[in-house]
Each structure stands twice: as structure tokens, then as C-alpha cells.
Amino acid sequence: MNLNDAQIERYSRHIILGNVGVEGQEKILAGKVLIIGTGGLGAPVALYLAAAGLGTIGLVDGDVVDLSNLQRQVIHFTPDVGRPKVLSAKDKIAAINPDVRVITYETRVAAANIAGIIKDYDFIVDGTDNFAAKFLINDACVLGGKPFSHGGILRFDGQTLTYVPGQACYRCVFTAPPPKGAVPTCSQAGILGAVAGMLGTIQAAEVLRFLIGKGELLVNRLLVFDALNMNFRTVKFARNPACPVCGERPSITTLVDAEPAVCDLKSRGRG
Amino acid sequence: MTTGYKIPPQLDEEIGQLEALIAKFRAGAIAPIELKVHRVPFGVYEQREADTYMVRIRCVAGIVTPGQLEKVAAIAARYGVGDLHLTSRQELQIHYVKLDDLVAVIRQLKEAGLSTRGGGGNTVRNIAAQDDAGIDPLEVFDVTPYAAALTTRLIAENDSWNLPRKYKIAFSGSEHDKGQATLADLGFIARIVDGKKGFRVHVAGGLGVRSAVGNLLFDFVDDTQVYPIAKAVKNLFWKYGNRKNKHAARLRFLWQGLGAEEFKRRFYEEFNKVTQEGHAPLTLDEPQAGRAVTAAVHPGPGEPEFVLWRARYVREQKQAGLFSVLVPVELGFISCDGAGALARFLGGFGDDVVRVTRGQNFLLRNIPAGKLEEVHAFLVRVLPLVPKPALLGRVLSCAGASTCQLGICLSRQAARALIQSLGSSGLDLDKVGEIRLNISGCPNSCGHHPAADLGFAGKALRKDGHMYPAYSVYAGAVIHDGTTKLAALVGDIPARAITLVVENLLAAFLGKADRFATFKEYIAGEGKDDLVAIIARYKDIPAFDDDKNYYFDWSAAKVFSLAERGAGECSTGLFDLIELDLNNIRRTREKLSTAAADQKGPLLGQLVFFASRALLITRGVEPKTDRELYDAFRQHFIAAGHVDPAFEGLVALAERKEFDALVPQEENIQALARAINVLYENMDNGFNFRKPPVAAVEAPVPVQVAALAPAATKDLRGVLCPFNFVKTKVELARLKAGDLLEIWLDDGAPIENVPGSVRDEGHKIILQERQGDHWRVVIEKK
Description:
- The complex is a heterodimer of chains A (271) and B (782).
- By secondary structure, chain A is an alpha/beta fold.
- Chain A has helices at residues 5-10, 12-16, 21-29, 42-52, 85-96, 114-118, 131-144, 170-173, 186-189, 193-212, and strands at residues 32-36, 56-60, 101-105, 123-126, 148-154, 157-163, 221-226, 231-236.
- Chain A is 33% helix and 17% strand.
- The longest helix of chain B has 27 residues, at 251-277.
- The interface between A and B is small, with 10 and 12 residues.
């Protein structure tokens, strides 16, 4: 791949970077990344990856833009209310960087479709808002041998970890979804919009670092932060031999849909 | 009865503050450095083993009562590692105390009437006095009460804990200066003039980096002036001392900086102020009155072991019928059990019975003749050196590189080896008399080598590129009021030879003992020549491949290296290594001046090699390969801006051993060598390079390297920052490792920024030269 002059100029700040350079930018331009959920997390991930020149971005979301989304889902604008999120997002990506190829999936991931959707991508980003989807994405990625970035936010808190095949997975730490009602959803508990941006941007940085192969990913580490007091820390963990999906005697060998937690206070759309 | 100092009333509050800080530190609320600045003045040093601390206990004039010693031993046994250490400034130390136990230790010491305040840091340190103050037949009067009262006063003053550097005070009872008052920041030597008690006062002496003998401040002051003088010196130091550079902060540097006259003028300014303030006189305890011992019963000569021991260790006091006994403690280490047993044993002899000596031993005092056999019988059971010649207990060493960041050599291990080898040497050590055998692990003098009859200071030397541990040998110190002089450097030996050099010199001395009454006289006479000859015999070492033993320090499991030393720490030991290369440069230049044309290339290569290596050690780099060497030179000297980038082409050619291409560059290579010399001349003790005067800097002629054939050339004139760098990277991405890329850059920001950025990414700048209004830069891809 030879960069043209416009590309050299567009990506010059990446090329200058010691750990990216021409070689790293070429890897980004060749990358294929799937973003599941085009909401609070998916929005910043998609924006930064588009700006970075990612080759192919897949977007999965079955919802339409709701007025209450705009407080944090920065890829959607006021005139987009009522439009499918994946189309709204696709337009913005094209406006930022016409080089990026966008593939949209106007659906929710489920046991029946997820394996087919993720199979063509180098890396998966979990930007969903419910535990059922998070565990499904984990299991699908473990069984399909795909690296992914997990992200979760609530109120002022965020957490993220990165899975790569052979290392600890989300279930090694969190064996199963919490009981229904034990953990509130965003729409019940609220979320500081900027927290979604903070965590999504961290996930975007993980994707880029994965693609260029530099630095230590958040593998076998859980990054948690409390944006109310602005404390960050990482917690180390190891692969769990008793993990139900990646352990020595896995009990999960095929994908199954769990019942998603229902957002009680939801009026329209999803949080 | 002479007692030690009195605990100041604010100590409780200060311990409380320390406790609160430790709690905050534990909670992560404060950084380690914040704790450190409070901890060190409390006499608490962190040890190399994480989370363990050394606690240094103030014992003025070495005074400790048996009751206190027993408590300290019990505290050390409970919270430490099982032994106590005696310091060369007459203190007791407990090692390996856990952070969470520190406050308990300090509180329990306080209950025993002991303080650790001022045990370390930039404070008024333990006030020393000659070991046998109060009992010495030669002394004019007992200086102990002055040392104790001055301590009590100074440790109650809050400005004693935050001085520019440490402040060490010492007292001697006579011109023999057994307290080493002429080697202290402030030294008092007892005199009586016209029936009045008083002192000769010396100032701004001390051992350390650039040791110095004290300067006479007062020929005689009466004894009421001790406090005003000590206070005025403290105020002077506080006001004018160098707080920025701790390597040049001791009082002696202030003296050197100001000159005698200005120093004294400022001193009198402070002294007059103190006098006008009108401070209460020191409260002196009654000096020890010679206890009357009636008709000491001499129980006959006794067993031969006792007789020998008595001759070695027992001395008569000025008080008739009472004796002092030196208790040899190997390198100052005594087990807690041993110290506790000693304390209990001494309990029956009253409180004024033991002091810690500057030689890291105990000196018992006030022992009646009739009790000596009992003392002997006890000591033999507790301390292994007691049945041996006194010389072995006198060997003094600092902690050395095993625990000290500054250390170069393992001085303590060398001292142990020396004690062992002397003990089994067959020499009649009882005939050698009192010899100060002092070993420092580096030139910083903590092992007191400048005050030694025979002293050693650790250094690193190199043979065929391999570094090995070595010692500079010093001899002939004189310590006496008015004539004190530091030991003189005689030569260098490999560390491995230290035992042989000492044994041979002592043997030579014993062979001439009929002509020289003391070792001191011998050294002043023929001894020095003998020492020179002995050093010459052991100076050379085998090549690394023939015998690696010389490249290991005493008791070391790894080949000697300086790599683990704290970076940037100043040590004159490293200066020797630099001088070595500067000499190499000088010699290579001499050879060049007479070399035939066809021999010049390799010599020029060597010149670049030595010039590139000479100052690397100041950056903590010990290159093992040529590649490491040149890369480090590029990084630390060219990229860091100390050496003109125009020399980079020479470095590349020397590294590639393209000697033929170097021949036309002779002028430039000479300029590079001169540039290194200029840098060295303008380097301070902290290894910082001051800007040399403009006249000293030569503008090098750009190196024309015709032999270089770039794989690609890119004209980046007119391309602004940072796109010129971006395009350079794009071009480099197309090349293979080792390929050369030539780029043309505009003057100004492009040439100032792009080569540095390229270098930061690990590529090499082979050449950088001006071409009219622009620059030609040749890069080798990494």
C-alpha cells in the first residue's frame, strides 16, 4: 500500500508518532472492526476509528435515534431522531472520512446471527447496554477466536477489558449475568454523558493499539474508573480454569440467548 | 556523674508528627519523598531491602548506660534482625526495622532516654568526643560534660534539623586530638590558659568528598563560649550554606567558596549577634571525679591468655587503680544477645562504664584491677575477637556497595577478608602497635581512609575494556592539634590484592621494628617507599580470559560492574575512569603525530573510540559492545546537545571501521577529541556540563563523506514542519534496515527538528552538512 499525498497529510500526526508511523497507519487502513451498539460507547468508538482511517467499520444496532440518546450518543444529531442509528452513524462516518467503508447491520445481535456477523472482522467492540448481549458477545468471540473490547458504564463509573484468544475472557471475571434487577440499567440509574465518551475513547484506543501491535493492551487487566472523583485503576486477573466458556471443562459450547434485563422506565427506544 | 544528653520537650510532639506522616503514607495520601524528608532527620534511613529501615541512635561522646544498652539490645532483638551496629561516630544502629514498627521503636528508645533525632539528614549530628574522655592520662580536662550539654541545647533547637548539610561537632581533651576535632565541621580541643579552662577551635574540616583539615578559628576561648560558637556556626551555615548541590554543601565548601577572611567576617557577624542575644550558659554535669579505689589488689599475673589480653586491651586510667578495657567488635557488629549480656554484666559497675568508640568498638571504663579477670572471662565468651590481637578489631570500613548507593567496592567484605587473612598470617600482630586500617568503598571517605595510617578507597579500573574493582592506597595520616594532615595517595591496587598488600607491608615493618618505634614513624620514613614497591608488585592483573577472579569483588557472585549504582550520583571514583580515557586520547594523539600515513586510519578510529567513551560513565552507561558505545554517545552527547551533530559522520565511520575514510577527517577528529576535553573541563561534581566559554568551542568543519551511497534521496526543501518529518518517515518506510536515505532540509526549524525526531525513532544520522542555504542529512534506517 502506498499512501497518496492527501493521505499523508490527513494521517500526518499518526505518521509522526514513533509507534505508529507509516507502517502502523497502513495497518489501520487495512483494519476491519465491528462495533456492536451505536449508542453511548459505539458513537465515540465509531467517530475516532473513522477519523483514524480504519479500512472497514461494521455497525450493528436495531434501534432508532431517540431524543434522550442525544445527551451522550454524539454521533447522532437532532435531525436524526427517529432514524435508524446505523444509518445515522454511517452518514457521519462518511462525512468525517470518505475513505472508510461502512457495513451496517440494522438488527440486534442474538445467538442465531452473531457468529455470522463477527466472522469477517479483525476485532469486535462491545458497545451494548445490557448484560445478555455482553455475555453473548464474549461467548461468540471466545468460540469464534475473535479479539474484542468489553465496555460497561453506569452513572459515573466505567470499566473495560480486552480479550484476545488464549487469554482471560469476560466470563473469567464475571461468570454469569447478575440476577434480573440486581444492577440498574442506564435508563434507570442515569449516566453522565461524558463518561460514555471517556470509556468509548479508551475502547477506540484499544482497537488502534491492537491493529498497530504496540503497547500493552488491557488484556488480563480490568480498567475501572470513577469519574465522580476521577480515580482510575487497573485490576489484574488471570485466566480462570473453571471459566464456563474458556476454562478447562467448558459448559458453554454453543451460543444461547439469555433474557435481557428490561428497562422499566424506558419510554421509547433503548438506552 | 557524667550522663548523656537530655531529651528535649518537643520530642513527643515530633514523634507524633512522624507517626501521623507514616499513617498518611500508608494510606497513600503522601508520596515517599514527603515521608523521607521527615524520616531521615529522625535518624531513620531506608535500607535497600524494600520497606525496612535503619534507626540510628544518638549517643553523645559514645555514652550509653548499661541499662540503656540492654533496652536497645532488647528493642533491636524484637524489631530488628538480631544484631546491633556501632558507628564510627559513636552511635548505635538498629537495622531492618519495619515501617509499621518505627514509631514504637522510637518511643521505646525515648523511654530509655535516647533520641534518634539528628541521626541522619542535614542536621546537627551526634556530637563526638575522644573515646577515653574523662579517663585519659594525657587529657587536659574531661570534655564529656561539654559535648553532653551542647547536645542537650542544640537538639532542643528547631533549626537544627534543616541545615544545608550535616553539621558534625567533635571534642578532644588534648592536643593529641583523639576525638578528631581537627577533622570536624566544628572541633573543640581542650586547653588551659592562665588557669582558665577553654578550647582551641577548628572549623570547616571533615571527611567526605574532598576531605579537608579544619581551620583554626580561635586559638583560645574560655569554656563559656562553646555554645555561642556552635550556635553562630550553625547560623552561618544555615544562612550561607549551599542547599542546591548536596555534593558541595558541607561547611568546608563554604569556607573554600568564601575564603578564610570572608568566612571569618561572616562568622563574627553571627557570633556577635548570638553574644548580644545573651544565651544562658551550658549546664555542665560534674565531670567524673576519680573514684578512689583503695589499694587495688593485684591478683598475680594470672593465666597466660589473661596476661596477653591485658597487654592488648587494658589500659590504665588517669584515676589510679581504675582501668579501661577495649572490647573488640568485628566491624562494629554485635549480636543483640551479646549486647544484652554485656549490658547485664556491666550493670554491676555503675552507669559510667561503657562508651561506643570511633573505631566501632566498646570501651569499658572504671574497671577496678581486681575485676579484670572476671571481665576477661566474660568477654571471651561473648565476642570472638577478644582472644585475638587488637589490630583486628581496629579495622574500620564503611558499609560499601552492598548497601550504599554510592559504593563502588564491597569494602565491608574486603575488611572481613583482611581480618581473616591477618588473623591467619602468622605475623606477630601484637608487635605492630596501634594502626588505623580504614577502608572506604568509594572516595567519599565514610570508611575514614583519609584519617588512616593505611587507608583504602574503592574505585573502578579497566583492563582491556573489562572493569575490575580496585582501591587507591593512602598512607600516613597525622591527627594532632595543629599538625593534622590527611593520608596521602600512594598508588592503586586491584581489590583482590588488598590482603597481600597489608600483610606484606606489616611484615616489612616488623622486619624494621628495631629502627621505627611506631608504624606511623615507619610510614613517615622508609614505609612509604616499601609501600610503593609492594603496590608495584601487585598492581598488574591477569587478562579477563586468563583469570576472572580479579574481576570479582570480595564475596561477590557477579563480575564487577558499576551499572547498578545510582545514576547521576557524584563520585570521584568515576573521575579516574574518565582520566584514563583522556590519557588514552592524549597518547593516541602523540602516536598520530609521528605515524606513517598508512597507519593513521586505525589510530584515528581509536581516537574517535576513546573520545566517544570517555564521558559515557557520567551518564551511567557502561557499554559492552562498540555498538552500545556509539549508540550511547549519539544519545547522551549528540542528541542531548553536548556535542555538535556535525561530528556524527565521524562516529558512523569509526563504528563501521571505515578507517580509510577517516584519514581525510583527521582535523575533525582532533576537534572532536578537543571538544570532549572542553566538556570535561566544564563539568561540575554533579556531572552537569556548564556552557563552555564561546572561545573554547570550535565550529567543526562539516564532514564530507564521499563513501556514503544513499538508497534514496528526497528533496524536502520548502516542506514545512512537521510534513518534512512525515515525508521522511514515509520514505524510510520504503527502505530496508541499514539502507541510507538522503534528505535535503531547509535551514531553521526543519534542520533543528527533523534530525532529532529521526534519531528519537532509533535511526542514525550519519551525516548532516550545510549546502549553501539548505542542509544535506544522511539517515541510516534502523
